[in-house]
Amino acid sequence: MNVVVVGAGLAGPLLAQGLSRAGIDVALYEREAANQSSQGYRLHIAPEGDLGLRACLPSTLYDRLLATSGKRGSGWRLLDPHLQVVREMLVTPVDEEETGRHLTVDRLTLRQILLTGIDVHQGASFQRYELLDDGRVRVFFANGVVVDVDLLVAADGTHSRVRTQLLPHAEVVETGQSEIFGKTPLTDTVRELAPAAALDGFCTVVGTDGRFMPLAAQEFLSGGEDYLMWVLGAPTRLFPVDLSTLDKAGLWKVAAELVADWHPSLAALVGLAAPETVHTTTVRTAKTVPHWETVPVTLMGDAIHTMVPQGTSAAVALRDAALLCRRITERTGSLLDAVRAYETEMLEYGFAEVERSLRSIS
């Protein structure tokens, strides 16, 4: 049996790790070139994501993940623009061996760990697939590579080309919000400026006009350079220009200006950011799709259930990878039966989380 996974973000490599451990031939294809740096900073991994990581990773890699994760904070807090705590939710101690850990990780560090020992075909952009008469699938890449496999798995994100072909009716829509995000080195000066809540977990500053600013420190247990991640989000209409037309320096300037009427520490924190780390995105969400007729092509993570970022999307994608791996490796029937069982379960919890995330911004 052989499997092709398209997309080497987080879920794709985790699935590849799990299938490889089970002795299944799996190849990972990524559209980015080897020298192209992916975006992403601090990530919260909810317990279901931790359980997925444990299930698929060799113990040596899981231990490395724990060793390079971030220091644990006490919880989540909502602040007003004057940095006063409005609401807080503290993490209750639980049996983490049974229920999974809350982890904070650096996305690029996690990705490097997930890719350890995995052969990645870089610069290979998925083009299309064909279903073959023998029940297999032929996969075409833009660089001319063509492979025949038993299963094609799409982990290629919100703009998934595989989803476009498999489910042309599936919709990913804009929520009307945009974000500018970046990171600021966690120097002594930044520690003094940052809200205490940002150094002790995760916090979000919320205004009365739709503006919001998540802040969280990434302090590595070992290795890595500590930083403060920040995001400035707002209804797109509140931004003075089309953010897609700005370079990094322009985005950096707009972000500082948009919080100039809030506590002065916030604009100062943005001003101390490394300009090359500043990016922009719009906030999107997937519309629920009914289960389709199962074929030897399936989807994981943002490729099927893109959701509003609110701390669980990474964990859900990792849960997808672990579930699909388990359904494949423990199957007693056909491969399609295993894929169908995965899709049925994934669609239920995945779109339930999409709906929950939408309520967080309503």
Automatic annotation (TrEMBL):
Record's keyword annotation contains Aminoacyl-tRNA synthetase: no
InterPro entries per record: FAD-bd, FAD/NAD-bd_sf
GO MF annotations in UniProt: FAD binding; monooxygenase activity
Entry keyword set: FAD, Flavoprotein, Monooxygenase, Oxidoreductase
Domain FAD-binding: 2-35, 147-330
UniProt keyword Flavoprotein present: yes
Entry superkingdom: Bacteria
Protein name as it appears in the record: 2-polyprenyl-6-methoxyphenol hydroxylase-like FAD-dependent oxidoreductase
